[in-house]
Amino acid sequence: MPSLDRPDDFQTRRAHLKDLSDDELHARFWDLANRIVQPLVAEARTHTTPAVERSVLLRMGFTGAEARDLVNGMQARGLLGCGAGKLVLVLANAHHLTVREAGLTLLEGRMWEELGV
Amino acid sequence: MKLSPDKRIDLRDVLDGLEDYRPRRKGWHWRTPAPDHKVGPFTYRNASEDLKNSVALPAAHAFGAIDPQCDFVITTEIASGRFEDDIRRMRMAAWHGADHLMVIRTTGQSHIDGLIEGTPEGIGGIPVTRKQLRATRKALDAMEDEVGRPINFHSYVSGLAGPEMAVLFSEEGVNGAHQDPQYNVLYRGINMHRSFVDAAEAKKVMADGGILQIDGAHNANATAKEAWKVTPELLVQHAINTAYSRAAGMAAENIALSTVPPTAPPAPKLRLDLPYAVALRDLFKGYRMRAQQNTRYVESDTTEATVTHVLDTLISRLAGADIQSTITPDEGRNIPWHYNTIAGTNTARQTLMGLDGLTDQVKLDMDGELPELAREIKERAILMMEEILDMGGYYAAVEAGQFVDSGHYPERHGDGIARDPAGGSGAGTVVKRAPRYGAPVCSHFGDNVFKDGDCKAYGGCSLCNPDKIRYVDELDPLDNVGERLKVPLDERDRGILRPEVERHGDGMVCVTLFVPAPPDVAEAAAIDMALHMNLKNPEVISKRVLHPAEGSVFEIKGVLDVYIDTAFLTLPTKVDLIPDADIEAWVRPRHIHAVAATVGEDEHSVGLREILNIKHGGVERFGLKCHDLGTSISVTRLLDEAERTGARVVLMSTIVTHADVHKKNMRRLADEATARGLRERLVLVAGGTQVTDEMAKECGLDAGFGRGTKGRDVGSFLVRELQRRGN
Ligand code: B12
User: Fold this and answer.
1) Is the predicted ipTM greater than 0.95, yes or no?
2) Which residues contact B569 (CB under 8 A, 6 or more apart)?
3) Residues 388-407 of chain B whose Cβ lies under 8 A from any Cβ of chain A
4) pTM, rounded to two decimals
5) Chain B neighbours among A 85-104 (CB < 8 Å)?
6) Domain A50-115: CATH class, spelled out
7) Which of A57, B54, B85, B537 would you label with B693, given CA atoms 20 to 30 Å apart?
8) pLDDT digits (tens, 9 = 90+) for B228-277
9) Does the beta carbon of B685 sit less than 6 angstroms from any atom of ligand 1?
10) Which of A14, A28, A37 to mutate to test the interface with B (most CBs of B within 10 A)?
11) What fold does the segment set B580-724 form as a domain?
C-alpha cells in the first residue's frame, strides 16, 4: 500500500461524530478498540511461537538454554504445534519418568522418534 | 540480609546464597494512603505513610526535619550497565522517596531469541538475567526494611523472549513491567504476528502474577518532533494495548497507561498538554495513570529540564495520576549519573509535596475550552481507529505507515513507520496449534487441553512450586560480576576512595566555569582551564551563552585520576555535647553574663536570635544572662558593654561576607580585646552562615559556629571552655 499523505480534513470527517454525546463517543471508542484487537486475540488463541513454548518449559523446570534446545528440536521436526510441554509430559508418562528426566533424555538426543504420537 | 544506615551495602552479602533466595512477595504495591496526615506543623491531604529512614528535602530543616511522602508512587530509572553499581544507587533513591525502581535493558537484548544468564556487562542498560534480577530483588528486599516501605522492581517484557521474561519476572518477584507488542513492531522491527502471539502469553503470566503493566505509547511522542500532534494516535495505541491486555485476562487496576505531557516551554505547555491529559483520563477511567516526565526536548541544560519536569508533575496533580515517573535532568547528555538520578527523584517529591491539597483550591476549568479540545482529540482518535478497520485491520494499517506519522490525524505526512507483516525479526516462527495442543502449566493463554492446576500431576509448575525454578549462575568466566568486583572490593577493603558518577572508581567529576568571552573563545579557554585542573579527557557537556560577547557558562566533565587513602585523612573530631540539664546546672548558679550583637554594618539578626532566645532553644534557657545589643554594632561598643556588665562571654554574629568583612570583624574583636586587656577574661565566640570553627580560631577567637548551630552547641562549648579556664 502506498504511504499516506493528506491534509487535515477533520472537520469534514467528523460529521458523523459531532452529534454523539460524550458517553456515546466513549462507547464507540472502546467498541472500535475491541474490534481492532479481536482478530489479533483470535490468532494468539490458536497459534503458538518458540518463545511461548520455551516459557512453558521454563515453568516445567527447565533452564532457558534447555528450553531453547528442546523447542528448536521440536520446531525442526514440525512438532511445535502439539505444544512442547505436552510432548515432554506425554513422553514422561509413557516411560514413568519425571518431566525433567524426560526432557534431559531428549536433550541427550534420545527418544525423539516417540514424540508427537 | 540486613542493612544498617551507617554502613555501605556489602555486595558480597548480596551475592551470597543467591541460588536459594526467594522473593518475599509477588505483585505490585501501591503506597498506603494516610488521609489528613499530620507531619510536623502541617496536615497533608495527599500523603501516604511515612518512611522509617530517609533523607529529607533540603528545606525540611526549617520545619522540624519532616519528610512527608506523597500519595503517588515515584519511579526512578537506573541503568549504568552494571547492576552492582545500580544497587547502590537504588538505595540512595529509596532514601529520597523512590519506590518504583526501573532497570533498563542493555541494547540488543530485545533481539535475543531466548534468555541470557549470568551477569555480563551491558551498554545503556543491563542484560536482564535471573541472577541479576534475583540479586537486585534481594538487595531491594533489604532496602524495603531499611526505609520501611515496599519497593516495586520493574523491567521490560518485550523483544523476542517476552513470554519467558514474563515467567522469569513472576518467579523472581519483579513487580512491574513494560509490555506492549506495538513497541516491538514499531520500534524494534520484530515481526507483528510473533509480537502479538507472544504478548498474549506474557500478559497472561503477568496478570496472574499481579505484575503492573505499563504500555509503550509514550514512545510515539518521544519520537515525534511536534509531539503534541501525535496525541490522537497515543489514545489509539493506549486503546489497542489495553483492549488486548483485557482479552488476555489482565485486570484494569493492573494496567497503567504511560503518558507524557507532550511539550516543553517555550511552547505554551500546559495549554497544549492538558487537553490530552483530560481526554486520556476520560476515556480510560478505571485504569492507572503512569505519568512520565518529558524527555523529548531535554538536551544539556539540567535546570531547564527540571523546570519542564516540575510543570509535568503539576499536570499530574491537576489531572490525576497513580505513578509519577521521573527523568533525570542529565538524560539528554549522558547515561544518568548517581546524583542526577537523585535530583530527578527529588524534583517529583518536592513538587508533589508542594502541590499537596492543591485541587481543593484550584481545579481544571471544565466549562471552558478544555473539554472541547479534549473532545477533539478523542474524535480524531476514533477517526483513526475507523480508518484502521477500513484498511483491513491493525496489520494492514501498520503496513501502510499509519503509525507514528507526524501529521495531526487525519492529517498525514507520509513519514510514519511502515512494517511488513511477513517480515521483521522472528518472521515465520508463528505456528498453528494442533487440535489437541497442550501446555500443562498455569497462566497459559489460549486453546489448551490442560487447565490451570493440572500441573499438580507432575508436582506443580514453577509458578505454583518455586522449587521447580532452575537457577543458573555464570556462563562467562570473564564477563561477570565476580570479576568486575575484584578491584572495587579490594579498594574498598583498603579504604581507597575515588570520585564517581556512575560506576565504582570512574573518577568522573564535573566543573562549572563561566568564561567572560565570546562563545568560541570561551569554550576553548574553558577546556584549557579544565586541563590545568588536571582533568583527563575534559569534555563540554553543557554550554549556555549568557551574552554573545560578555560570556558563556560551561559544565565540563573529566576524569580526576587520583585516589584518596582514608587512612591518611584527618577528620574533624566530633565533640559530644554536654546534656542540657548539666549545662544548666553548671551555668545557672554562676550568674554568668554574655554580650551579643551582629557587628559591623550587618543587619541580620535571625541567626543570633536562634542562638540566644529562650523560646528558640537559645542559651538563655541555661541561665546565661544575655545582653543583646542588636545589629550593626561596632566591635568597640560590644567590648565596652562587656566591660560594663562584667561579662565573661562575647557572642558575635557576622553574616555578610563581602570582601571578607566577617574575618575582619573577627580579627578586630580578638585584637581589640587583647589591646584592652580583656582577652584573658572573655570567651570570644563568633557565628554566621560562612563562619567555621577553624576560621574563627585563625582569627584569634575561641570558637566559631556556622549554619545549623543550636543553643546547646554553644552552651556545651562555653561550659567546657570556662571550666578549662578554671571556673
Ligand atoms: C533573612 C535575610 C535577610 C533579612 C534579615 C532580617 C533580619 N532581621 O535578620 C533582610 C531582608 C533584612 C536581609 C537584608 C540583607 N541581606 Co540578607 N538574607 C536573609 C536570608 C534570606 C536568610 C538569613 C537567615 O535569617 N537565615 C536563618 C538563620 C537561622 O540562619 P543563619 O543566619 O545562618 O544563623 C545560624 C548560623 O549561621 C549560626 N549563627 C549566626 N549567628 C551566630 C552568632 C553566634 C554567636 C553563634 C554561636 C552562631 C551564629 O547559628 C544560626 C542558627 O543556626 C539570607 C539568604 C539565605 N537563604 O540564607 C540572606 C543573606 C544572608 N543576606 C545577604 C545580604 C547580602 C543582605 C543585604 C546586605 C543585602 C543588601 N545589600 O541590602 C541586606 C542586609 C543589609 C545589611 N546592612 O546588613 C546575603 C549575604 C551574602 C554574604 N555571604 O555576604 C545572603 C546570604 C543572601 C545572598 N545570597 O545574597 N537579609
Assistant:
1) yes
2) none
3) 388-389, 391, 393-394, 396, 399-402, 405, 407
4) 0.91
5) 85-86, 89, 92, 98-99
6) mainly alpha
7) B54
8) 999 999 999 999 999 999 999 999 999 999 999 999 999 999 999 999 99
9) yes
10) A37
11) Rossmann fold (3.40.50)
